[in-house]
Write a structure and sequence with these properties.
Number of domains: 2
Structural class: alpha+beta
Largest sheet: 6 strands, mixed
Strand content: 15-25%
CATH architecture of the largest domain: Alpha-Beta Complex
Number of strands: 15
Number of helices: 14
Mean pLDDT: 90
Order of helices and strands: EHEHHHEEHEHEHHHEHHHEHEEEHEEEE
CATH topology of the largest domain: Spore Coat Polysaccharide Biosynthesis Protein SpsA, Chain A
Strand order of the largest sheet: 2-1-3-6-5-7
Low-confidence stretches: none
Shape: globular
Radius of gyration: 20 Å
């Protein structure tokens, strides 16, 4: 039902060094599967040839991550097979998992959904499907008809990402496909102690991987989320303590509650946010915040540079 094809995508044909091992794990565990790697140019040719009626929508997306999301759905609908983000490590063969199935979906860890005030969230980072599957036909149709303007990263999640998949599943109700629990396809949450152990790649990581396999896991997502930073371009923040009207908290962020993304020229963003009464904070990824979470629920920024972090308006209690 699901053909033995592995699809992975990236901007160029050069896989970043940090993820080359992870890409190879899919090949090692699936020696009899066909492996196809798609760069941006390949993706454009594919959409032009096989989805000409959606080409205008595809090239018109404001952000590259939306094209990447769209491409993975189109590949699964046209060819079928398995799609995995390149920051995914495969732990064992998927042969038995896809047997007698026409679609394979899994939930993200519950904490990811709760951070966005949702009960569940279906992942689009690892999926498998038969060709011409009705589910992905519905996903592509939803994207085609969506007119949402994208201001913040949650808008990307809703227009082409996991929240879109979750919405389609909700609309399908009793006809929605079975969705595997996070322990199977996404067993390690972002910004967790377990993820830190895996990233360090020491002896503890081997023991943890064995334990995850025993608990039913087939793969590990490392949640690089490079698209979030890339959404707003390169960071310009030479003097992190010198933004008028704000207190800087180095290395930390309060996830969610985004009003807009104002770019990563922090001086300009700070001036804009200072004049906007809705904004009480913003981070160095460019996202302005309307609400701060309790401080104990703040998360670490992906980058450890001294100029990365959260700016909170002076006078706001945190």
């Amino acid at each position: 039902m699901i053909p033995k094809i592995i699809h992975q995508t990236w901007k160029t044909s050069e896989v970043p060094p940090a993820w080359r091992y992870h890409v190879n794990t899919w090949k090692w565990h699936h020696p009899d599967w066909e492996y196809r790697f798609w760069n941006d140019e390949d993706g454009l040719h594919f959409i032009t040839e096989h989805f000409p009626d959606l080409l205008e929508k595809y090239v018109g997306f404001p952000y590259a991550i939306q094209r990447a999301d769209f491409l993975r759905y189109a590949l699964l609908y046209h060819y079928g097979g398995l799609y995995a983000d390149i920051d995914y490590e495969c732990l064992r063969s998927f042969d038995d998992l896809i047997e007698d199935r026409s679609i394979l979906l899994g939930y993200e860890p519950e904490i990811h959904a709760h951070d966005l005030d949702r009960k569940h969230m279906v992942s689009n980072a690892l999926m498998a499907s038969s060709p011409q599957n009705d589910f992905f036909a519905q996903v592509l149709n939803e994207i085609k008809n969506d007119q949402t303007l994208v201001y913040a990263h949650v808008d990307v999640l809703e227009t082409t990402g996991p929240l879109l998949l979750s919405k389609v599943c909700l609309h399908l109700k009793q006809h929605a496909p079975y969705i595997f629990p996070a322990d199977v396809l996404s067993p390690v949450p972002n910004d967790s102690e377990y993820l830190n152990i895996l990233v360090k790649n020491g002896p503890e990581s081997i023991d943890l991987k064995l334990q995850l396999i025993q608990n039913g896991a087939y793969a590990i997502h490392y949640w690089s989320n490079s698209w979030v930073t890339n959404l707003a371009g390169n960071l310009i923040n030479p003097e992190p303590e010198a933004i008028a009207g704000f207190t800087f908290i180095q290395g930390m962020d309060s996830y969610g509650n985004d009003l807009f993304n104002g770019g990563r020229d922090i001086k300009q963003l700070g001036e804009r946010c200072l004049q906007d009464d809705r904004v009480i904070a913003f981070n160095t990824d460019g996202f302005a915040k309307s609400i701060l979470r309790d401080k104990q629920k703040w998360n670490s920024m992906k980058n450890s540079a001294s100029n990365e972090g959260l700016y909170v308006k002076k006078g706001i209690d945190f």
